[in-house]
Amino acid sequence: MNDGMSHGVNGTNTTGGLNRADGTARRYHAAVWDEPLIMEQGAPGRRGTVPPGPMEGAGGGDPLPAGVRRTTPPDLPEAAEPDVLRHYLRLSQQTMGMVGISLFGTCTMKYNPRVNELLAARDQVAEVHPHQDDGSIQGLLEIVHRFDLMLRELSGMGRFVFQAGGGAAAAYLHACVTRAYHESRGELAQRRDVITTAQAHPCNPATAAAAGFNVITLPVERDGHPSLEALRAVVSDRTASLMINNPDDMGIYNPHIKQWVDIVHEAGGLCFYDHANFNGVMGRIKAAELGFDACMFMLHKTFGVPKGGGGPAVGAYGCTPELERFLPGPLVVQTDSGYERRENPEGIGRVREFLGNLPQVVKAYSWLLAMGADGIREAADISVLANNYMEARLLAVPGVTKSFDHLTLRRLEMTRFSLGEYTEQTGVTAVDVQNRMTDFGVDAFWLSHEPWIVPEPFTPEAGEGWSLEDIDYWIDVLAYVMEEGRTSPAMVKSAPHNQVVAQIDGSSLDDPSRWATTWRAYQRKNAQRANAAGR
Amino acid sequence: MTEAPPQAPPARPASLGVIVNPIAGMGGRVGLHGTDGPALEAALRRGADAVAPYRARRALNRLRELAPGVPVLAAAGPMGGDHLTGEGWTVRTLPRSRTGPTTAADTRDAARAMVESGVSLLLFAGGDGTARDIVDVVGTAVPVLGVPSGVKMHSGVFATGPEAAGETAARYVADPARARCADAEVVDLAGDDLASAAPRMFGIARVPDARSSLQRAKAFTAGADDADLVALGREIAREMPADRLYLLGPGTTVAHVNAALGLQASRLGVDAVLDGRLLAADASEAELLSLLRRHPAATLVLGVVGGQGFLLGRGNQQISAAVLDAVGAGNIEILAARGKIAALDPPTLRIDVGDEHATAPITGYRKVRTGRGRSTVLRIVA
């Protein structure tokens, strides 16, 4: 591409005159397959693999007992294997698929090293069965144990478990441990309150509520975090736990965190450190040294394991020795003869089956070994440096402001910006800018978990892995789109132009009569709408 | 509340009423607190530019892009028709029966004519004063939506910006029968002395639900306030012990408690409830004090008025220092939608009852309930 512009499907110029260092814009257009749903494909009698019948001498007849056999076959599409493969490959081509530049803040989008995928695909990991004898999976159990030791080193906690299938599941696990802890002391009926903050990840209040607690959310005050006075006003003998991120999603580190923990402890509550924003402080702080009783790491973001559509998640939950007896079993313990899985009699039960998503633990273990203690600290420092570089450049873009811009303290691994003034001037919103940026091969940025606090928010996170060129290109695209919003707002407001589909009306997601998560619901609700329209 | 309004569904095809208060907002940039009455002359003397027409056109341009051809009934001249020229509009302009500069009376005339013509939605550009004039006439018979253009905008009827107003209106007129509405408070500064004027509630409007224009992607919960408040109303109703007097303050938030009890709220006044029965609706200070003498065990349930976070002393003056004394500071429950709290800057609630002795125990950090089992803590200042 050397003419400085790219062309949409209809030949119109849709990426304008954005210049990269070499004077050209990246030409990008998503693949458009106009792919029907899999349920609308196939034909009767088409098959993929036809499994052989029971082996000779296996008893003959139907291998399934009559009681578990279907009387009518399932209503599934009948499609040939290559058709199915092509269908899903096409769908994958219609996404940006982590080949654009993704600075999706609060999610720490990292490169997932291929070597870790190869390790997790080895038979010793991929082909084991959870009901295998411990003696036959000693290597895997050793990895779990050694990784547990490494996370203890990073946090100061007494033991980690990997059963939770994500960060929110680990937060829920903490709420369950909190319940068990207070129950063991005969105080559960009285301790009903979980305290969190308006800028903590929403999974903290949500999981506390799911576990039956009342939730008290402290508002952010002028210093960029809730005040100690507000905390003192709500802490009481009803306090069950504090659940908090630090730094929060605005990149602001609460410097009074030790005092917070002390106040909650004095009242008899537990303190949980949601380490979703660990990237800026990896190897620099330990949750236990700050006084926390438990913490959570997200292996699928911080520890180089695929996240989102890239793979299943793991919320590694760790706690102090005092809380260990409440952890969900089985635990992996080292014995004189090796490693074994052992139930935890007082544990809260399962939050997921077996040991959790073990292939992801193997990848995270491999990632952490490769990084080393010094490497992980350096990565944290680079991610803070990269964010502060981004911040300096972004604040030079007319119309970009920073949340709580009166604070002089540096933000850590991300900063919450605002396009509020720009939107007021142009009518172009952060969502419009986000949509338009995807036309340049840049993944949609993250706005905010709490979009009602900072107007027209956006939160990029540079991390330690993206190159200077990538970060600069991302900023150039943002600056270009914002300028375009001033001169031709319609171009930005009607974006995206180079994606598979144009704008999607999200209102159906708020309308139970239209949303559909299954084929059956989709058919039923579409028919109802058609009937209603015909009346 | 998300239930359908009691009125019959709007006549088809969907149509839109448009009223522009051409002088709204002019006072703001020249340091006035509004453009009502004599303030207009002062604004003009200080060289104010027209704000509302410009912002109305931004909203209308967006609407035309998204809902081309929607029938529009516009107020006359600078109050509507003038801004709907050019291609893509199907406009009928109302005649004007008055002469001279436009005033609030023109706004009310136009609003009345629009209700009578059966418009599906009334889109207006102005501030709190305009909202008050319109809602005074249309009540909850027709949903209204404000293009934020005034100096004062404490009411809950405004979109987040002109384009957002155009988008929400377009979505609404696309299918008014299925579109959802919520109740919103109309709040305006009251008092003759502008410097000391404070927000008061003047009425309740129906407003199209704009939640999906807030944000896509990971967070969909920003507009879930209504469901939270319905659940909170039920929780409080369930908690009410026998023989305890409940004084339910004004506003749409506290009205959810009345609704949970199956009682019609007076909404702009204070209602008294005992054992699920309504003892008094829209009670005066004297009535409240008399009830409190008979039932000393009492809880006062308060909502928050407008964007300035007034808890007491604005629109609920019947809750006097004497009433507060009788109830006791420990027996006050504060309810607020999360959205309303988010709009507070700084996150502080205010009381102005003029009696330090009665209000001192209420000030400081206090718990504010935002949903079932959900609360926050806010600083209360007198």
TrEMBL record, chain B:
Q: Which residues fall in a coiled-coil region?
A: none
Going by the UniProt record, its keywords in alphabetical order are: Kinase, Transferase
GO MF annotation: an example: kinase activity
Is the Membrane keyword given for this protein?
no
Name recorded for this polypeptide: NAD(+)/NADH kinase
Instruction: Name the species this protein comes from.
Output: Actinomadura alba
